[in-house]
Design goal:
With 189 residues, this protein is an alpha+beta fold. 29% of the residues lie in helices and 34% in strands. It contains two helices and eight strands, in the order H-E-E-E-E-E-E-E-E-H. The chain is elongated and about 130 Å long.
């Protein structure tokens, strides 16, 4: 049997290595758990996936048929309702349109259709805010929400022809005046 003698440097190195392993491994495992938390069955993972309207350009006063698609990645079946908000839907004092409730099964996609009446005097590009609220069908205390924006294009505001016509008339009068005064000066020569 050999007699192993460790020098002080070797002993300090071994003790330091053991200390490092005993402290570093638990800290590393704690960091992994912190940045990848366990999946909670009470969390609802749902979101808007894409949005679609029935036309690309609308006239003011027209009803927009709008459809929003959702993805349900949670472990719960969800009851989802959607609310639309925008000034072109009737202004501040009117009630925001709300959809009927739709059930989206766990792990599947679903969609909600909503009709949006618009104000007569609406022109150009407008922003529509969509808010969806999901509630678990098995436990109503478990809820989540998601919001998104959608740009709706309306026809451009018609340009009045009166200012253009007025500019042409004023230009013709000035041209006539200049022409008449230059002719009378030329005839004097």
């Amino acid at each position: 049997m050999k007699n192993y003698k460790l020098s002080m440097n070797q002993l300090a190195l071994v003790i330091g290595l053991l200390f490092f392993l005993l402290t570093a491994i638990p800290l590393t495992l704690a960091q992994v758990e912190r940045f990848s938390p366990a999946i909670d069955d009470n969390e609802l993972d749902f979101r808007f996936t894409w949005l679609k309207s029935d036309k690309s350009i609308y006239e003011g006063g027209e009803v927009i048929e709008f459809e929003a698609f959702f993805m349900n990645n949670s472990t719960h079946n969800l009851s989802v309702t959607m609310t639309a908000t925008s000034p072109f839907l009737g202004g501040i004092n009117s009630k925001n349109p709300e959809s009927e409730s739709v059930i989206i099964p766990s792990g599947e996609n679903g969609s909600i259709k909503i009709l949006l009446p618009t104000v007569e005097e609406t022109y150009g590009r407008q922003i529509l805010r969509l808010s969806a609220v999901a509630t678990s069908t098995s436990d109503e205390s478990i809820t989540a929400d998601d919001q998104t924006l959608f740009q709706v294009a309306f026809e451009e505001k018609p340009v009045s022809r009166l200012p253009i016509l007025g500019l042409i008339i004023v230009g013709a009068l000035i041209a006539g005046f200049v022409l008449r005064t230059t002719r009378s000066e030329l005839s004097d020569i």
